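Review form for a predicted model. The reviewer records the input and the model, then writes brief findings.
Reviewer: anonymous (R2)
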Amino acid sequence: METTGKVALVTGSGVRVGKRIALALAERGMHIAVHYHSSAGPAEETASEIRALGVEAEALQGDLALTESVRALIGAIDERWARLDVLVNSAAIFPRTPWAEIDEATWDRTLDVNLKAPFFTAWHAVPLMRRNGGGKIINIADWAAIRPYKNYLPYVISKGGIVTMTKAMARELAPEIAVNAIAPGPVMLPEDFDAAAAERIRKGTLLQRLGSPADVAQSVVFLVAMTDFVTGHVLVVDGGRLLA
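Model under review:
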C-alpha cells in the first residue's frame, strides 16, 4: 500500500505500544486518528508528536466496549478525512485474574474491550474503507493465544478470539480488505514484574533479549506498507520464545 496521505485509526494509541504504532505509521506519511479511552493528556501529546512529522492527527475519545461509541468514532473520522485506509486494533486491558478471583464483571469487561470492541470497530470501519477501494486491518493479539500462561485466563481467551477473528474476517472481507494479526511476546512487561522475572523471560527467548514496542510497530509497518499479498496471517513477534 502506498501510505502517503492515507488515514489510519490506531485504537489505544495515546500510550504504550499503540503510541509507537501510531508514530511509525505517521513516519510513513499517514494521517492518524489517535484513539483513547481515558488517557486524554497522553493522546494529545501523541497527536502533537505526529503533527510535528508533517502529517495530520486528531485525538478522539471513545469507550470501544460500547458500540454506539464505536459508531461515533468512525463517524468522526469520516467527517474529518472522509476515508479510512488502515485500522489497527491495539487497545486492550490486561487484568491479572487467578482462577479463584475470576468474576463475571471482570470476564465481561475483558471480553468486551479485547474482543467485542475490535470486531465492531472493524465492522463499522469496513464501509468507510470500501468507499475508497479497500484497506487493511491489523489486530494485536498475543503469543499467549498460542501458548497460554496462568492467572490471566479471560485475557488469554480474548486474545485467542482475536486470532480466530482475524482468520475469519480475512475470508469475509477479501479481496478488498486484508486482515492480519500480530502476536507480540515479551515486548513490554507488566509493571509488577521485577528484575528477576524480566531476566527469566529474557533467557527464555531464542534471541536472548526482550523486545520493545518498536518491534511491534515495525511489524505493523511491514503488513501495511511492505506487502500486499498477505491476509489471514498471525505474525508472532516474540524473539523465538514460543520455540525456546
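Findings: The domain at 7-188+212-232 is CATH 3.40.50.720 (Rossmann fold).
Further findings: The CA atoms of residues 106 and 154 lie 8 Å apart.
Recommendation: see findings above.
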